[in-house]
Amino acid sequence: MFLNLHGLRAGWRLLIFVGIFLSLGFLTDWIVPRILQIRQRSFLDPVALISSEVQTLIQALIATWIMARIERRGFREYGIPMRNAFGRDFWGGLAWGLGSTSLLVGLIAAFGGYHVLGLAIHGATLWYFVVLWTIANLLIGFSEEIQFRAYLLATAADGIGFWLAAILLSVGFGGLHYFLKPHERWEDFASTGLLGLFMCFTLRRTGSLAFAIGFHAAFDFANIFLWSGQNAGQYAVGHLFETRWQGPRWLTGGLLGPEASWVVFVVIAVLFGLFDRLYRHQKFPMGFPLIPVA
């Protein structure tokens, strides 16, 4: 019931990891407000995002480190990039993230749904928010990928196989966005889940989360800052352009922004097809070594 040839069964290891992660979250939520008098900020304020994502990243890394010690494995076996975190795959992911969002917004614009009216910020303010949003989105990329597609995916794959684990975690990833954010619709649930599945696919073919981290960071950066779309009914604090989104909700995404446009599904299909042609070989999971059962 508890053990197999590898040691503790995958399901129990997942429960321990989730328990550690949630316990650290409750502890952080109790301690941090008492130490730091942090004022309430907008959902899309980069300072608020930096604060929350740093906490989440630390929680995920600590939980993963504890499990790695228990299992006598390294971070690399969970897909977490160590020496090459900012190597070739990371920069490739950045390019794909910027390109895919630009393609998405470009298609919406081609159908008359998006217009740039001018810059929303200028001078020193512009550079201030460029730096803040770059940091914020890099942290989002690292924290969400390590939280959802590192230990969880590797261990679930060890128990039920890679693709079933990837599908279930991607459905959960989309579900968390759907149930925890305002104004959500099925389109955002589906697109977020499919993008999560695409990032699992990049891990499968590159052997590291570096590509997914770069992609995730750039996709969000281009979506909410660069092309200045909405997310959960808000525009980002310090977004780059004054924009006009007009047309039916299926085209523009409405309050949820371009990520909930039906056009995103065309872009996601292109991502899967192109990545499959360019990255041909499976590199993850690498195969966990056997751990003798005492």
How would you sum up this structure in a few lines?
Helix content is 64%, strand content 6%. It contains 10 helices and 6 strands.
Describe the structure.
- This protein is mostly helical.
- The chain has one domain (3-278).
- The chain is 64% helix and 6% strand.
- The strands form three sheets. The protein has a two-stranded antiparallel sheet.
- A hairpin with a 2-residue loop joins strand 4 and strand 5 (234-235).
- Helix 1 crosses helix 2 (46-71) and helix 6 (162-180) runs antiparallel to helix 7 (186-206).
- The longest helix is centred in the N-terminal third of the chain and has 26 residues, at 10-35.
- The relative contact order is 0.16.
